[in-house]
Every structure is written in structure tokens, then in C-alpha cells.
Amino acid sequence: MRIGHGYDAHRLVENRPLILGGVKIQYDRGLLGHSDADVLTHAVMDSILGALALEDIGAHFPDSDPQYKNANSIVLLEKVYGLMEAAGYQLGNLDATLIAQEPKLKPYLIQMKENLAGACHTRPENVSIKATTEEKMGFTGSGEGIAAHCVCLLIKSE
Prior knowledge:
By secondary structure, the protein is of the alpha+beta class. The protein has helices spanning about 40-50, 55-60, 75-85, 110-120, 140, and strands at about 1-15, 20, 25, 30, 90-100, 125-130, 145-155.
């Protein structure tokens, strides 16, 4: 077994879509980044890459590479799944937390869970996603950005 942790954060800006866990969220701002800036999916990818000791998403999908401009992070997660499979592992489970004062994310969590499970070739019950605020403290609490943490357990394939 191997355990990994991932973290990501991006600034909220106008004129960008807000995408989390592969779901387009109705909101007046979106996350700034080279790709779609999906902090949840980025944290998931970094947790898996960390468990495999394969650096981070920046090493695999650099923001200096134009092919990743506005990239769909779920597609990138599928590539990370390929690395996990090639290393002889499968996902045991992952547990992620989104940190955002706004918007309210509860209505979108089930679809996020299904999207992440699909990209990782696992059942949705192996994926946990929670959303919390920081009671108006820090950059997420003030509405400047959104962050996500994820831990995962990988199991050696038989």
C-alpha cells in the first residue's frame, strides 16, 4: 500500500468558468490557471502522483507547455491513472476536501464524485468529497480563491 497527499489552490477571477471535479459550477467567477484550474482534480492528481513518488502535476503537465492551455483536468487525471496502472497500483480510496466560502458546493458533490471515480476506474463509494468554509478567514474565507486537499490510498494490483 502507498499513501499520498495533494493540495492545490487558485485565485477566483472574473471571465473564467468555475470547474471543480469536472463539474461546471454556476458562479460569477472562476479559477485562474493555465488549465481549467480545477483545484479538486489537481489535488487528487497530486495525491496519486505523491503516493507513486512521481513528482507533481507541474512536472507532468507544465504550464509552460501550450498543449495544456485550458486543458480539461479530468482528462489529465485519466493520464495520471495510466501512470498508476503502469506502476502496478489501483486506487483503494481517496478523501478530498474543498475549501470555499462561496459558492455552496453541496449540490454538485455527487457529480464530482462520479467524475473522479470514473477517471480513476473505481466505484464512487471509494471516493469521498467534502466541502467546507473557513468562517471568512484567510484567502478562501474572504472569497479570493478556492483550495482543495486530498489523501489517497493505493493498493498493489494482483
